[in-house]
Write a structure and sequence with these properties.
Shape: globular
Structural class: mainly alpha
Number of domains: 3
Largest sheet: none
Number of helices: 20
Order of helices and strands: HHHHHHHHHHHHHHHHHHHH
Helix content: over 70%
C-alpha cells in the first residue's frame, strides 16, 4: 500500500482530480492544500536531515512551495478579506487555474520519479584546517566585495547590477558578487555551527559574516531573504556526529523568523523609497528614505501598499494559467525563449550590447498578451517554447546541466568551492520565480570562479614548492 501514501502518487492523484473537476473552486482549494502538505513535509525533512537532500527532489519541493503553497495561502487571504474565490478576484477562469495547478503537480511527479531513479544527493563538507582557513578568507572577501557593490551602486535595489547610466551593460563584478551572497552565507553558518574545531573568536566572526550577507539580501528581494533564511535553518545546529540539536534549532528558528519578518517590511520600505526617488543609486539615501517611511507609514500609505502587494504578488500561478491559455501549437516559441535567455547570460564583451527582447517582451507579443512584469519561472518559459512537453523537460535539462557543473567542480579538488557551488545550486533551485537567464548566469559565474580558483591554487602551490626547493 506504499504507493497510496507515496508523495509521487499523491501528486499524481491531485493532478488527475483537478483535470476531472476543473470548474470546481472547492476541489481547487482542497488540492492546493494537499499539494502544500507535500511541500511542507519535504521542507521539514530537509530541516531535520539536510545531509539527505536530493537536488531533484528539492527542486520539486521548491516548485510546490512557489505554486501550491502560495496558491493555498492566497485563497485563504482573499476569501477572508474579499469574500470571493481567487478566480473571481483575479478575473480568471477557474478551469485555467485548475489546469495550471494540475500541470505543476505533473511536473513535480516527473521530478520526484527522476529523483528516485537518478538520486543527486548533496555532500556536506568535511573540511580540514587548511580548507577552513581558505573558506573563511573567501567568505570575508565576498562580504567586503558585497558592501563595496552596495555602497557604489553596482549592486542596487532589487538586484539591479548595471554599470552604466543607460542600463545597457551589466556589471560582471556585481553579478559575480550577487551570485556569491547566498552560498557564502550558508557556508559561513555551517562552518560556525557544525562539527569543526575552530576558535570561539572565529566562530562568532563567521556568524557575523553570515548575518551580514543575509542583511545585504534585504535590498535584493523579499523572496531571496526568505529563501536564504530557510536554507540557514536547514544547515544550522548539528553536533560532532551530525545529529540535530533541536533546542538550538528551535531558538534559531524563532530568531530567524522574526528577523525575516522585519526584513520583508524593510525591503518593501526600500521599494517605496525607490518609488519616491526613481533612479537613485545612492544606498545611503535609500536607507534614510526607508527609515523615514517606516517611521511615518501613514504619510506614504505604507501599510496599505504592503497589504495589497502581499495579497496579489505571491499568486504566481496566475501568470502560468495565462500562458497555458494562450500557448498553442501554432504560436509556440520553438526554443526562441530559452535561446534569448542563454544569449543574455553571455558577457557583452563577446556579443555586443544586448538590445534583444527577453521573457515577457519576447513571449507576450507572440501569445497576444500585454507586456507587463509577471512571475517568470522555468515552467512559463518551457510552456511558451514547447507547450506541456517543454514545461516538463526544461526543469530536467537545467538539473542535468547543474549536475554536470557540480561534478566538474568536485574534480577541481577544492573543498570550499565544492561546498560553495552545492549551496549556490540549492539557493538557485529554491528561487523558482526567476528567468531562465538566472540558471545560465549561475553556470557562467561558476565556471569563471572555478578557473580563477584553480589558477590561484596552482600559483600558490608552485610558489610554495619553489620556497621549499630554495630552502
Amino acid at each position: 500500500m506504499n504507493y497510496l501514501s507515496s508523495s509521487l502518487f499523491q501528486l499524481l492523484y491531485c493532478g488527475l482530480l483537478l483535470l476531472a473537476n476543473p470548474e470546481s473552486a472547492l476541489i481547487f482549494f482542497i488540492i492546493s492544500f494537499a499539494m502544500s502538505l507535500v511541500a511542507i513535509n519535504g521542507i521539514y525533512k530537509y530541516i531535520k536531515a539536510p545531509a539527505g537532500i536530493c537536488f531533484i527532489d528539492f527542486f520539486s519541493t521548491s516548485i510546490l512551495l512557489a505554486y501550491a503553497l502560495s496558491t493555498f495561502i492566497t485563497q485563504i487571504n482573499i476569501y477572508f478579506l474579499k469574500s470571493i474565490d481567487v478566480a473571481h478576484y483575479f478575473q480568471l477562469g477557474q478551469a485555467s487555474l485548475s489546469t495550471a495547478l494540475a500541470s505543476v503537480s505533473f511536473v513535480s511527479v516527473a521530478l520526484v520519479g527522476l529523483s528516485r531513479w537518478v538520486p543527486m544527493p548533496i555532500h556536506l563538507p568535511n573540511f580540514d584546517k587548511n580548507d577552513l582557513r581558505e573558506g573563511l578568507w573567501v567568505i570575508f572577501a565576498i562580504v567586503v566585495a558585497s558592501i563595496y557593490c552596495v555602497l557604489t551602486g553596482l549592486m542596487a535595489f532589487q538586484g539591479l547590477m548595471f554599470s552604466d547610466a543607460e542600463h545597457t551593460s551589466i556589471s560582471p563584478f556585481a553579478s559575480m558578487v550577487s551570485f556569491a551572497l547566498a552560498p557564502a552565507g550558508i557556508m559561513a553558518l555551517i562552518m560556525a555551527s557544525g562539527k569543526y574545531e575552530i576558535s570561539r573568536l572565529n566562530r562568532w566572526f563567521l556568524y557575523g559574516l553570515a548575518a551580514t550577507l543575509w542583511i545585504i539580501t534585504f535590498t535584493q528581494g523579499r523572496r531571496l531573504l526568505v529563501y536564504l533564511a530557510l536554507l540557514y535553518l536547514m544547515f544550522y545546529a548539528f553536533d560532532n556526529f551530525g545529529r540535530l540539536l533541536w533546542r538550538k534549532k528551535l531558538l534559531f528558528s524563532l530568531f530567524v523568523g522574526l528577523f525575516a519578518y522585519l526584513g520583508v517590511k524593510l525591503f518593501f520600505a526600500f521599494r517605496v523609497a525607490g518609488w519616491e526617488s526613481p533612479g537613485t543609486k545612492d544606498a545611503i539615501e535609500l536607507v534614510h528614505s526607508a527609515i523615514n517611511i517606516l517611521s511615518n507609514p501613514s504619510k506614504y500609505d505604507y501599510d496599505y501598499l504592503l497589504s495589497e502587494t502581499s495579497l496579489e504578488r505571491p499568486f504566481v500561478i496566475k501568470y502560468l494559467s495565462q500562458i497555458i491559455d494562450k500557448a498553442r501549437f501554432d504560436n509556440w516559441m520553438s526554443g526562441d525563449a530559452i535561446v534569448a535567455t542563454l544569449l543574455f547570460s553571455i558577457p557583452s564583451l563577446f556579443i555586443g550590447v544586448k538590445t534583444f527582447a527577453l521573457d515577457e517582451g519576447l513571449i507576450h507579443p507572440r501569445l497576444g498578451l500585454p507586456i507587463d512584469d509577471d512571475a517568470n519561472t522555468i515552467l512559463t518559459t518551457g510552456i511558451a517554447d514547447f507547450g506541456w512537453l517543454g514545461m516538463v523537460l526544461y526543469p530536467v535539462l537545467v538539473l542535468l546541466i547543474l549536475r554536470f557543473l557540480m561534478v566538474l567542480v568536485n574534480k577541481s579538488g577544492i573543498k570550499w568551492l565544492d561546498c560553495f557551488v552545492q549551496f549556490g545550486v540549492l539557493f538557485l533551485l529554491i528561487n523558482i520565480e526567476c528567468s531562465m537567464a538566472s540558471y545560465w548566469s549561475f553556470v557562467r559565474s561558476t565556471l569563471i570562479i572555478v578557473i580563477a580558483a584553480v589558477a590561484l591554487r596552482l600559483v600558490a602551490n608552485s610558489f610554495l614548492v619553489r620556497r621549499i626547493y630554495l630552502s
